[in-house]
Design goal:
The protein has 501 residues and is of the alpha/beta class. It folds into 3 domains: 220 residues, Rossmann fold, CATH 3.40.50; 113 residues, Rossmann fold, CATH 3.40.50.1100; 44 residues, no CATH class. Helix content is 38%, strand content 13%. The chain is built from 17 helices and 13 strands. The strands form 3 sheets. It has a 6-stranded mixed sheet with strand order 4-5-13-10-11-12, sandwiched between helices. It has a 4-stranded parallel sheet with strand order 8-7-6-9. It has a 3-stranded antiparallel sheet with strand order 2-1-3. Helix 11 links the parallel strand 10 and strand 11. The protein starts with 7 loop residues before the first helix and ends in a 7-residue tail after the last helix.
Length: 501
């Protein structure tokens, strides 16, 4: 829709104006730092940072209902810069010119309602938000669009050159970082550190295909993260993990899209997300809090984080009911099919603690919960979901297992509607599906395939008396014989009834 086709009173608002004054705020000492240089931790106390708009109050001059109209009309625009997460420009990047924005098709992912079978199985109504339909096939593109748009801003406005974007990854982060870096190939190169042998072939192929320098290290993600952190502290690199506060800003768009999809009526929702490095749940909490502050929504949804018992530091932290007695302790992770969540020392934990406290003050202690599930429950849930019309990854299975357990244990109001984060596309984790079907999971995964959930192709074997197109070129009569025999066997396998019979 062209700008001149919008109502006159909306035309000036649809195209966002550059504004605001962004700075990093340290969650440890509270110190403010300039965004003119790339910072990942506080130079004074080494705590993690959040980005704050010091002129946020100016946005409150616009009524919440007007913001809804702006975002809804903006959604009808065909401007590339506003076609993705920067539809919500004022909330996640108001200092950026539209020409700085890197848009590769991220955001606006579909919210797909579960069928009646799934609703009964889970114990409540739910939707999957399919973030695997982002360009690199995971939710990580939201944060990368933000982080690389800011890099592009520094390149265009500050003359930054020869940038090396680097990250540690369990697979999805590296795919997203390499993709966005390749788009800015004239100014940005990328390198990714992966735990050797612990990412799927599909996830390994993505950064390689985008031209990134891929380095495999012994150990797990947490070990790779420590190396990347050291590099960011001692060398000139752009860190692209969720320690980068610009990543969190971009991922807030997930909350904004959910609100828009439900006409900004979110008070009866339960938003469910897997917890890995804790960046996603941080962004979800921050996004809903921002919208409430601006009057865009009038109540907060429940938020449920889910962890596997093989990687559960956040669950263990909140297991202690008394806030004063909680102590965060990293854990040693065990193998998990939810690879993106297989993190024992999430870098965004300080952000989670701050935002959960703020969220609970406004919406009550029960408004944020953390649920623990087994590896068996994760795999079974993923397979059940995908047999009922979804394209869920293992992390999506983790969310479904979490909401099912929460409903069964009365830890969520069953009258709510749950929104589950399918963080990546199912095809990225096809190898785990194969292991389930073939019963080849290593013992440490603690997964025993259920007979009714397994599946395998039926291979038609032709007797020597039946001509086969695999053996020779067939004449018309031979080919008819092949077709009739094959159809007869397949009809028996499928239990088909002959017409007129």
């Amino acid at each position: 829709m062209k700008l001149d086709q919008f109502p006159p009173e909306m035309q000036a608002a649809v195209i966002p104006k550059v504004g605001g004054r962004y700075q990093y705020r340290c969650l440890g000492c509270g110190e403010l730092h300039s965004i003119e240089e790339l910072l990942y931790t506080c130079p004074k106390c080494d705590s993690v940072l959040l980005i704050e708009d010091l002129e946020w109050k100016r946005l409150k001059e616009v009524p919440g209902k007007k913001w809804r109209k702006i975002f809804d009309y903006r959604k009808m625009s065909n401007l590339p810069a506003l076609s993705g997460i920067y539809l919500f420009h004022e909330l996640i990047g108001s200092i950026l010119d539209l020409e700085d924005i890197v848009y590769l098709g991220e955001g606006r992912t579909p919210v797909v309602r579960a069928n009646a079978t799934m609703k009964e199985w889970a114990g409540m109504e739910f939707y999957f938000k399919n973030d695997g339909q982002n360009p690199s096939a995971s939710f990580k593109d939201r944060g990368m669009a933000s982080a690389f748009s800011y890099l592009n801003h520094l390149i265009n406005k500050r003359g930054m050159r020869d940038v090396l974007a680097i990250c540690a990854s369990t697979g999805d982060t590296s795919a997203a970082a390499a993709l966005y870096a390749s788009y800015l190939c004239g100014s940005v190169k990328s390198a990714v550190l992966l735990p050797g042998g612990k990412v799927t072939p599909q996830q390994l192929g993505q950064p390689l295909g985008s031209g990134a320098r891929v380095i495999e290290l012994p150990g797990v993600f947490d070990d790779c993260m420590k190396v990347v952190e050291y590099l960011s502290e001692h060398f000139s690199v752009a860190l692209m993990n969720s320690k980068n506060a610009w990543r969190i800003l971009g991922q807030e768009s997930y909350s904004y899209e959910i609100a828009q999809a439900f006409d900004y009526e979110v008070g009866d929702l339960a938003v469910v997300a897997p917890i890995g490095n804790a960046g996603n749940i941080t962004a979800i909490l921050a996004g809903f809090l921002k919208m409430l502050d601006l009057g865009i929504i009038d109540s907060l949804p429940a938020v449920i984080g889910v962890q596997s018992e093989h990687a559960n530091p956040v669950y263990l932290y909140y297991l202690e009911p008394e806030k004063e007695r909680r102590q965060f302790r990293p854990v040693s992770v065990r193998p998990s099919v939810a690879q993106a969540a297989m993190i024992g020392n999430p870098v965004s934990m300080p952000r989670v603690i701050k935002l959960v406290e703020e969220y609970r003050k406004l919406a009550g202690e029960e408004s944020v919960r953390v649920i623990q599930v087994s590896e068996q429950e994760i795999m079974d849930s993923m397979l059940v979901a995908n047999r009922n019309g979804h394209i869920s990854c293992t992390q999506g299975g983790e969310c479904l297992a979490g909401i099912r357990k929460a409903a069964a244990e009365n830890k969520v109001d069953k009258n709510r509607t749950a929104i589950l984060d399918a963080t990546a596309h199912a095809l990225k984790f096809a190898g785990f599906q194969d292991k389930y079907f073939l019963d080849t999971f290593e013992p440490e995964f603690e997964i025993a395939p259920k007979k009714e959930m397994r599946n395998a192709p039926f291979s038609l074997q032709l007797p020597e008396s039946v001509p086969s197109p695999a053996r020779s070129t067939l004449g018309p009569d031979e080919f008819r014989k092949f077709v009739e025999y094959s159809a007869s066997v397949i009809a028996d396998v499928l239990g088909l009834k002959r017409l007129g019979g």
